[in-house]
Design brief:
3 strands; alpha+beta; 4 helices; three-stranded antiparallel β-sheet
């Protein structure tokens, strides 16, 4: 794979985040992420037994603050 393509792949942003990742991006606790999702301010997706937060909802919330 050419170097140029590998660099582009590294720059692809994830669509779904683990709760600690979302917390780090929003500079808050994982518990606060759960609270924001319960309030409907963050979109939560369940994948089997895993819970993920959409990057789109994190960006939307960050832009609103």
């Amino acid at each position: 794979m050419p170097h140029r393509v590998r660099k582009e792949l590294q720059e692809i942003e994830p669509l779904l985040l683990k709760i600690p990742e979302a917390a780090r991006l929003l500079n808050c606790s994982p518990r606060h992420i759960d609270d924001l999702a319960a309030q409907g301010l963050l979109e939560k997706r369940k994948l089997d037994h895993a819970v993920r937060i959409t990057m789109a909802s994190v960006k939307k919330l960050a832009a609103a603050e």
